[in-house]
Amino acid sequence: MTAPERLREPLERLYRDFAYAERIERDAIRFPLRYDDPRDREIAALLTACLAYGRVDLFGAQLDAVLARIGAPYDFTMRFDARRDGDTFRDFIYRFNRPRDLVAFFVAARQILGRHGTLETCFVHGDPDPRGPIAPALEGFARAFLEAELGDVFRGRRLSRGYRHLFPLPSAGGPCKRLLLFLRWMVRREPPDFGLWTAVSPARLVIPVDTHVENMSRAIGLTRRKSRSWRMAEEITGRLGLIDSRDPVKYDFALCHKRMSGDCRDRRDPEVCEPCGLRVVCRHWAGRRDEGRSHA
To answer: What are the phi and psi torsion angles at 97 (to 5°)?
Structure first.
């Protein structure tokens, strides 16, 4: 894997110079950013992150319709009644998810907010070591939703596949990309994230690994793992932590959108790669550094 000292300057330049404003509207973070009230933003962020599988333009259309119907997310959640308000989502269909999955989301969120006041307090309540790895706290947070009283939604209390998909568990070994994305939004103090959660340190975050971050990380030597998993996410984060231990996932947005935008094609392309500052550490240009410098 690529040595941290070789990665530091290219990654810092990418983070510093990336055109965040141009990409915000193509990112799921644009949905919670609509809300000024922290209580609304917290709920909107979790709902958005839970549904953020697939392209933004696909789940975004469904999410837009849901957000338009519920109005202020916090007030809607706190007064939500499954029998009275369940029809709010009667037309919702997105891949694994159906209307009752959203009903269950709001029933569980209402119970959690009623018990803890905020989602942050719920997360911290289940955090066994505020200085340790984030996985146990994230596990407890997801289980708070999975173990909520949902008998009015699911017959025999058997959770649907779609609802369980919204709250993956780190202990299952998957990358938990969407919940880690939610944590990045809520915990990081610098744009494009909004840092509403002050009780959790950014140093504890784990990078949310989607296909774009996976490909970029493999290209620049942050991981050698073949499959997307929690271990891959930890490995990438660990390598980034050698560059910035206080905020290792700060590079996530730029890495993701560099690939998503087409600025990286996961192969050597002299025309596309010419302006790329990561070319000096890219595996596709290994052994061609003189050629890379001649175009710099």
So the answer is: -100, 145
